[in-house]
Each structure stands twice: as structure tokens, then as C-alpha cells.
Amino acid sequence: MITHQYLLSSRPKHTIRIGVLDDHPVIALGTAAFLRGHGDFDVVIESTSVDGFLTVLEQHQCDAVVVDFYLPEAEIDGFHFLKRVRRCFPALVIVTFSAGNLAEVEYAAYRGGANAFLPKSAPLALLGDAIRMAVTAPKSFFTLQDGQIASAEPHRALDKLSASEVEVLRHVATGLSVTQVAERLSRSKKTISTHKRSAMAKLGLADDLSLALFLKEKFDQGYNLSPDAY
């Protein structure tokens, strides 16, 4: 548990220059206004445009940025956008938040190079704590744990699956049907179907379309479905 005393002692002694990006103007305005209410924060960028944000970020030296994970109006968002920011600004602290599937987004944010992740439902006070802690310890990854900000390495949803379930999904991801996977693995169709349904239940996927979209997203984010990963 992170104590208030620790948070006070861990605050950097200099003002933290921050950029804020959210495609929803009200959220961008509210986040920036909250951060400006703290003496150790200086919000120098407040943007609703990805292109505009990256351009201004090149012109203003920021210590940290707070960005929405999902930016549907932009050409890129999520994992790929975080990767771009990390590549262009290696020393920048990246804090991202989202209202989406939290376990999935948290791991994608971690893989994308973010320093911290928070759900949008978290109190804004915790956003300030996450920024301060990430600036103080940029090599750690911070997230919400039991109502407090803590350093923790997130785990991907696929870790819930058994080795057999992963093996089946790996073949399904290549476009094979249940019958074809059964033939490839020399197992019964019933066994393969059982593994597939079990995996979908653990991942919260209701139908084959949801599974296909999930697997495509995992490949796009660089997830490893090879047997050597397990």
C-alpha cells in the first residue's frame, strides 16, 4: 500500500511539465484543469488532436504526458500510438487511461511503452499520484491496486489459458476451422471444440466474430501465441 507520507516524500522537487491528450474536449479540459490546480504541475499542452499533439510535443519540453488510450478519430491510437510516442520521445513519462476492457488495455499500455495506466473511473487524485510516482521511478510500471497506485507488472489475458487452449487458438488464428485444427493436431473435433469454447469463456468472448477480432488485435499488439511462450 502506498502511504500519503511516501507520496509526499517521492514528489520531484521541480515542476513537472505535462501534456494532456484526449479526443473528448470536456475530458481534456477537465483533466488539464485538475492538474493545473497542483503547484508541482505545469500543463503546457492541452490537445484533442493526435497530429497537433505530436507537433506541439516536439516544440515543448514535457516531463510527462497524460493520454487517452482510445482515440477513434485518429489514424492510430492505443498500442501503436504509445509505441510512436515512446519511439519519438524515449525519456518521456507516459500515463494513459481508458474506460475499455481494463485488463486488456493495461497490458497493451505496458507493452506499448507506457509508464502507468489508470481506468477513467479512478479518482483524479490518483492520476496526480501516478504522474509523480512514474516521474520519480520511470523504469517501473504503475497501476491501480486495491484503490492505490502501486508498481506492478501486468499480465496478459491469454495467461489465463491452458497450454492446450493456447495451442488451439494459435491454429484458429491462422484461419483454420475446428475440423482442420483437429486434423492438424490428430485430436478429435470434440476435444478441439471443447478447448476453443473453454478459451472463449475465459476471455469473455461470446461468438466466433469476437474471437476473430480478439486474435487479430493480439497479433497487432505483438502478442506471442507460439508454444515457446508457455
UniProtKB/TrEMBL annotation:
HTH luxR-type domain span: 154-219
Domain of life of the source: Bacteria
Pfam families on file: GerE, Response_reg
CDD domains: LuxR_C_like, REC_NarL-like
Domain Response regulatory intervals: 17-135
Modified residues (4-aspartylphosphate): 68
An example Gene Ontology molecular-function term: DNA binding
InterPro entries attached to this UniProt entry: CheY-like_superfamily, NreC/VraR/RcsB-like_REC, Sig_transdc_resp-reg_C-effctor, Sig_transdc_resp-reg_receiver, Tscrpt_reg_LuxR_C, WalR-like, WH-like_DNA-bd_sf
Keyword Phosphoprotein: yes
Keywords, alphabetical: DNA-binding, Phosphoprotein
Name under which the protein is recorded: DNA-binding NarL/FixJ family response regulator
